[in-house]
C-alpha cells in the first residue's frame, strides 16, 4: 500500500491537519520517520503561530514532487461550544487566561451565580479549603438556569472576569457586609480556577466533577433534601443524593442566618435522610450575612 503520514494539532479553537503521501522507495524507514517528525514540528509551529517553512522546504529539496495537504478548521471559543451544548464543562484560569475544555482540576467547589462576586463567596471557599488541606479550590458558574434561561456569552465572561482581581477590599460591594461578619482580616485572593458548566442541578455537577466537595450554605442544603425539587418524590430525592455519594462527592455546609426564624441555621437543621448523614459535613464557626441579591438591590436603589 501507499506510504502515508497524517498529523493533527489542536489548540482549542482551531485544529491543524496534515496529510502526506510519500514516494514509495525514495527513502528508507529512518528517513521517512524523520520526515514524519518534521510534519509534527510544522504542526506545532502552526498551532503556536510560529512562522516556519520546515516541511515545505524539506519536501522541495527532496525533489520527489511531494506536497503535504493542509487543512485548518475553526472550532469557536470554548465558551461558545459550552453555550451551544457541544461541551458540558470548561475551566478558566483567570490569572493567566487559559481555558481547559471538558474537565476541571477543582476538588472543593463553590457553586453560585456570582452576580456580583463578594467577600462572602471568597471567605466561604477559604473556610472550606481548610477542611481539605492541599485540595484545589474553584468556583462554578452554571450558564443555564431552569427559571432564568441561558446566560449570554457576554454576561458569562463579565462574571468570570470578576475573579481576575486579587483584592476587592476597596470594592463598594464589600461595604454591605453584615455587622454579624466576624472576620476583620483582608479577604483572601480567590483561587484562579473558575468552572463553567451547563448543569444547574447538583447531581449533574457531581457526574461532571466526581470526588468533589461542594460548598453550600445551610439554606441550599435544606433545599437539597426537599422532595418538591424531585417531582415531589422522596424516593427520587434519596436516589439522587445516593448517587452523588457514590460518585465520591460531599457537601460542606456553612451556617446561614434565617430571617424568618430569626436565627442561624446550620447542618444540624437539615433533614438528612437516614444513611446519607456522611454526605453533609459542617463548616465550623462560619457565618457571613451577605448575598448577591441584596447587593444588586442596593445598587439598583443607588442608581
Question: Major beta sheet, specifics?
Answer: 8 strands, mixed
Specify the number of helices: 9
Helix content: 25-40%
Percent in strands: 15-25%
Let me know the average pLDDT: 86
Low-confidence runs of at least 5 consecutive residues:
166-190
Shape call: elongated
Question: Can you walk through the features of this model?
Answer:
This protein has an eight-stranded mixed sheet with strand order 5-4-10-7-6-11-12-15. Strands 1-2-3 form a three-stranded antiparallel sheet, covered by helices on one side. Helix content is 30%, strand content 23%. β13 (256-258) and β14 (263-265) form a beta hairpin. The N and C termini lie far apart (74 Å). α6 runs parallel beside α8 (234-246). The longest helix has 19 residues, at 29-47. Residues 166-190 have low confidence and may be disordered. The protein is α/β, with parallel strands linked by helices and 303 residues long.
